[in-house]
């Protein structure tokens, strides 16, 4: 599930969505082999935040499922209660979002995006990710569900 979340968020916040950069500057010197310490820090952060988010979603899913299947609740109440469940875990969501934004910014700048373009692409995470997670809990569907 985590990989699907990252891919889905990255697709929504791809640097390609940011305005096109003017002509690229001359090629930079070759990158050193292997990730830099900064890249490793971002990778470690996204892995830890992803594990925390995955555990949170696994914890919330049964509670959300109980709400979804409660025939006595109108749809609007179900939606509100599930969103309230997610709000209880806001710090976990915020950390995952921030880690994902850092990863997107790092990737975008390494692909030649300007700092502004990278920031615009990363900011899309803040706009898209919370709603995507809420919809996953509200509908019970996962990005990696393939209908089987």
Question: What features would you highlight for this structure?
Answer:
single chain, 148 residues, mainly alpha, 0% strand, elongated
Provide structural commentary.
The two termini are 15 Å apart. The N terminus is likely disordered. By secondary structure, the chain is an all-alpha fold. The radius of gyration is 18 Å and the shape is elongated.
Q: What characterizes the major β-sheet?
A: none
The ordered string of helix (H) and strand (E) elements is HHHHH
- The N- to C-terminal Cα distance equals 15 Å
Mean of residue pLDDT? 82
Class per helix and strand makeup: mainly alpha
Strand content bin: under 5%
Please summarize what this structure is.
This protein is an all-alpha fold. Helices cover 70% and strands 0% of the residues. It has 5 helices and no strands.
Give the helices and strands, then pairings:
Blueprint: H1 2-12, H2 37-68, H3 75-88, H4 90-110, H5 115-139
């Amino acid at each position: 599930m985590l990989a699907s979340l990252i891919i889905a968020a990255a697709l929504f916040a791809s640097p390609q969505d940011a305005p096109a950069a003017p002509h690229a500057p001359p090629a930079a010197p070759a990158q050193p082999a292997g990730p830099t310490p900064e890249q490793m820090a971002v990778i470690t952060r996204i892995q830890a935040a992803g594990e925390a988010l995955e555990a949170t979603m696994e914890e919330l899913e049964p509670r959300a499922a109980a709400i979804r299947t409660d025939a006595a609740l109108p749809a609007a109440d179900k939606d509100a209660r599930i969103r309230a469940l997610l709000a209880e875990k806001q710090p976990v969501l915020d950390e995952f979002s921030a880690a994902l934004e850092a990863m997107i910014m790092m990737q975008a700048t390494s692909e030649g995006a300007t700092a502004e373009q990278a920031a615009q692409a990363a900011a899309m995470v803040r706009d898209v990710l919370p709603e995507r997670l809420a919809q996953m809990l509200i509908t019970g569907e996962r990005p990696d569900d393939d209908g089987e």
